[in-house]
Automatic annotation (TrEMBL):
Gene3D superfamilies: Divalent-metal-dependent TIM barrel enzymes. Keywords: Endonuclease, Hydrolase, Nuclease. Pfam families: AP_endonuc_2. This is AP endonuclease. One of its GO terms (molecular function) is endonuclease activity. It comes from Mesorhizobium temperatum. Residues 20-291 form the Xylose isomerase-like TIM barrel domain. The lineage of its organism: Bacteria, Pseudomonadati, Pseudomonadota, Alphaproteobacteria, Hyphomicrobiales. SUPFAM superfamilies: Xylose isomerase-like (SSF51658). PANTHER family: HYDROXYPYRUVATE ISOMERASE, XYLOSE ISOMERASE-LIKE TIM BARREL DOMAIN-CONTAINING PROTEIN.
Length: 304
């Protein structure tokens, strides 16, 4: 295993500077945020473009990978997390076009995994969204296969605000759908596993790893705290809004002993990438770094 971080919180810091700090702090891997270059408003923790997939040549891609290797940093994956099943056709096309560019970039860099979302139309049922996924994803998956890259869908429901209500923006969050994904595309699509999303859904963490561990290509280390006062006020039918609180590892309700016991038991030996979404460690690069260092110290005893 290698311990690393997702670069997304360093939106205004060049990749080289992020790499210098990460290496000096003892991290061993980076998941590189690869959203499109844009000056428009972005979702929180999205929009960071540390490599512009639309304009980076094959030779430049190889140079970036080599520079990171000189810092003793591997690249766990390239990350772009849009909504490929967005109800607006123009939006859907734009994000799929960029995702395909990220896949090509990964191939040029020698990175085997691109992390993304399956997507979802919040106004549709799970089954209706699945029918859309069956139409959209085969061509994208074939593009990834042709470029020697695997796709890893994160198990995040993407329901944090009322614009994502009621169904969320990513259907790949439950065992029910993951069995369908793996039956349809299991040779080419795996999971970017984030245990925090199991907590508020009340999905058994150990059982989930036992069933889906062999298909985990990448792991996000993020914690989540249930605000029980918020849950009392809003009830479980609020789908987590007002009571699911992202935290740095060690500060929430994820049982990291259970997580790592399960990962080692099923033979996972890939990257453990800290994903920072904790509002208590925001506001400046120094605060963001403080959060990452806290998470590093919590997780380091498990990552060998």
């Amino acid at each position: 295993m290698k311990l690393g971080l997702l670069t997304a919180p360093f939106a205004d810091t060049p990749l080289g500077e992020v790499a210098d700090w990460a290496s000096s702090a003892g991290f061993e891997a980076l998941e590189i945020a690869c959203w499109p270059k844009s000056s428009g408003a972005a979702r929180r923790y999205a929009g960071t473009s540390h490599i512009d997939a639309a304009s980076t040549s094959a030779s430049q891609a190889k140079e970036i990978a080599a520079a990171l290797a000189e810092e003793n940093l591997s690249i766990s994956g390239l990350g772009f997390y849009p909504n490929p099943l967005h109800p607006d056709a123009a939006h859907r096309k734009a994000v799929i076009d960029h995702l395909k560019k990220v896949i090509v970039l990964a191939s040029h860099m020698g990175v085997p995994v691109v992390n993304t979302f399956c997507g979802g139309d919040a106004a549709k049922t799970i089954d209706a969204n699945w029918q859309e996924a069956l139409k959209l994803w085969p061509a994208v998956i074939a593009h990834a296969r042709d470029n020697g890259v695997k796709l890893a869908f994160e198990n995040c429901p993407m329901i944090f605000s009322y614009d994502e209500w009621p169904g969320g923006h990513n259907i790949a969050y439950s065992p029910h759908i993951w069995r369908r994904i793996l039956e349809a595309w299991g040779g080419d699509v795996g999971m970017n596993f984030d245990p925090s999303h199991l907590v508020w859904q009340m999905i058994d963490q150990a059982r989930f790893i036992r069933e889906f561990g062999p298909y985990m290509l990448h792991v996000h280390a993020k914690d989540l705290m249930i605000d029980h006062d918020g849950l009392y006020e809003r009830g479980i039918l609020s789908a987590g809004m007002g009571w699911q609180v992202p935290r740095m590892p060690g500060l929430g309700d994820v049982d990291w002993n259970v997580i790592f016991s399960g990962l080692y038991r099923i033979g996972y030996d890939g990257p453990i990438i800290i994903e920072h979404e904790d509002r208590r460690f925001e506001g400046s690069d120094e605060q963001v770094k403080r959060g990452f260092l806290l998470a590093r110290d919590v997780l380091r005893p498990f990552v060998k």
